Structure formats: structure tokens, C-alpha cells
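thread from #wetlab-drylab

HS: before we spend reagent money on co-crystallization trials with 5-O-phosphono-beta-D-ribofuranosylamine, can we at least see a predicted complex? here's what I'd submit
DV: go for it
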Amino acid sequence: MAALKVGVLISGRGSNLQALLDAAQAPSYPAEIVAVVSNRADAQGLERASRAGVPTAVVPHRGHRDRESFDRALDAALRAHGVEFVCLAGFMRLLSPWFVENWRDKLVNIHPSLLPAFKGLEPQAQALTAGVRLSGCTVHFVRAEMDAGPIVLQAAVPVVEGDTADTLAARILAAEHRAYPLALRLIAEGRVRVEGERVVVAGAGAGGVLMSPGGG
Ligand code: GRF
């Protein structure tokens, strides 16, 4: 089966992008990263893509009359590279309903909490404030509502005594780097189906769960 052609949207550091690039190096990996698109020219992830030999594009969000016109430019950049599936990896712009519908069930995001808990900004600090004992990350299909949509996979990490938002974020990030490549693998293998706003993973009892001992 031909590898799924994936485009990754970023705005910054790109460590999740790096995890996807690294996974896609393996000849047996069922997806190929064919383009990385950033709304910021200074995104560190762009260098990671270039180092991996993956084409990049910068589509600045400024100068567009509205969100949809920016999204149409993003869409054009992705289509120009033959992208079939999109991963958001630290992409800091809200996407318009037009874009989300155009890529329905072909668009996933990773969020550093166990959704539906702690949507939005600084979810790690939200988790500490709530006093939860477990947190983690979620890979989910994107819907127009922020940080909502059918859940593909979650990875849990413990919250430990003395954690700060930074130490918890680092533990969750390590889990993200395992979860995102695994989720994309399941999708690219054709094992992930959306049924009534829930995901069914074929051939896997606990296919959508990762547990991380201690340091992730
Ligand atoms: C990650 O924590 C991701 O879950 C969130 O934004 C952060 C991006 O980090 N959506 P990076 O750019 O992948 O290093």
C-alpha cells in the first residue's frame, strides 16, 4: 500500500514534528511527511523539516482579510504538495469551519491533556490547579470547536508531588512523542474509523491507550 502523504502544520518548536519525521524514516512506516507548513517564518520546526529533506512553506497569517482567506492559502500550500492528511503539531491558529469541513476526518491535532479535561491554553497549569493525579495527551480528529473531536489515542502520565507546569509539560511532551507517531501509524494503516463522533480502532483491544510509567 502506498504511504499516506501527510502535511504537518506548525507554529514553533516542532518537537512533535520531529517525532513524526523520525518515525517516518523507517521504511515500514505507513505515512510519509511530504510538506511542513508554518504561519511563522521563525518556527524552529522549519529547520527540522529541511534537515529531514522535507519541503516547507510559510503562510503568514497576517495580511489576510479574514480567517478563511488565510485557511484557503494554507489549503493551497498543502494541496500543492499532494497532501492527503494533515497533522497539527503546535499550530497556534484556530482553523475556520471551512478548513475543518474540507479536511473532515483527515485532520488531527495533539493536545497536552486528557481531553475533554483542560481544553485551551496552558492545560498543564490547569491540571495542577485541579489537582488531578493523572494527565497526559490526546490525539483527536479536529472539529470546529477548539480541542474537541473524536479521540484516536490518549497517553497518560502521573502528576507527581512538587510538579510545576514545566516539569509536567516535559513529562507529557515525552508521551506526546510516542503517542503522535503511533496514532498516525494506526490511521495510515487504515485501522481508524470515525463512527458517530467516536473512534473505533480495528484489531486492537486497548489500541487507543498508552500508559507511561514515571518519567514517561
Ligand atoms: C505540544 O505540547 C502540543 O501538544 C501542543 O503544542 C505543543 C507543541 O510543541 N499542541 P512542539 O512544537 O511540537 O514541540
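DV: Helices lie at 15-25, 44-51, 67-80, 97-102, 123-130, 165-188.
HS: ok that's useful, forwarding to the group
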